[in-house]
Batch of 2 targets.
Target 1
Amino acid sequence: MVFETLLDPIMSSLLVLPPLLAVAIVSLVVSLIITIIYKLTTNQDLMKQLKSEMKEFQKEMKELKDHPEEMMKVQKEAMQTNMKYMMQSFKSTIFTILPIIIIFSWMNANFAYESINPHEQFEVILNFDKGAYGDITINPPQGIQVVGDSIEEVIEGKAKFALKGEEGRYTEENALEFLYSDKKAYKDVIITDGKRYAEKEKSDVTPPLKSIEIDYEKKKILPLLNWGWLGTYILFSILFSSVLRKLLKVY
């Protein structure tokens, strides 16, 4: 949630776009930044030389396929050269790893699941330690109603509640309240026509309760392949990086 707050002023405008376009834009911008940082933080003359050496080694290994002992020697040299190339490449990772983690956290908080629409039924699941038993009571805030019983028994480590409600952010003092074993637990819920949703799982709870999760529907960014945001992002990233490296002559 901290990362979401950090990037919201910059990236929340992407949420009005179709998800596929938004993921493509993020992938393009991140790929461009990473490519530029990579070029600036590596010795491009050395990288070009190492890449050229690796191509030569590959040619030699093909020619020596009938001479296994000699091919092994060339393969060993190729591996050493490849290791040098990887070590040089790693320098740029030092500068890019933290921003990527922050961006990925923001995307996971906004593109992983479908939001809960007003008056749409959804389920909240409480997961308990093995052997836990007893009844769980839910106290929904004003604006959310329970579909079915407000008291459920723990069966095989789980208790489920079906709910629906009006549009709103049900957080902090206005969150869902659960009573179990003389203890209380809370879970935030966001109901909206937009694309926001509350954190899927909350795990900072008191045993025997292990976690509380909302059973969201996974958002398919690339429906044709049934892919979510991460797979789609990686696909775009590979395509954009390949093109950008050629355009910017990065080795």
Target 2
Amino acid sequence: MGLNARLLVLLLPLALGACTLMPPEHRPTEPAPEPEPAEAPEPDAPEPEVDEPEVDEPPEEAAEPEPEREPAIPDAVIELVADAREASQNGDYDQAAAYLERAVRISPDLAPLWQNLAVVRFQQGDYAQAEQMARRSIRLADGDRALQRRNWQLIEASRAEQGDEEGAHEARRQAEGI
């Protein structure tokens, strides 16, 4: 993969960063499955015997499990990512990094923020920082294999730019193994 192709792969996440950081209420959700209708008794069938409860206490309502929610992403973070994307598109990587660093201070556990910051550091030519940010993103991207793969690809490119061909090869194997 040539340098330009790698850069294109690396810049894509930043362009999509705002989509990745959409708050949960804006993400499409699968509709809840409709409950199956209860079978109606046949007209000539005898009434089923029903055991009367021995205790007059009202039956306990089964607690429905709370749906698992993703943590809310603060509006300020979403705005900072949008500002960073615009700055990056205008070639102002220092400003893009500043916006993303502010976003990371607000939400330090959001793996896509660290990945976007890694991409900007790569664009600035700070390959060691790019790898460090990508590694942090990998640690936080629990279960997000696509994000982990993109981070390993960034590490591969960073190592290649630093002349570490063996390290780049190892990072490529990590990306392909995900």
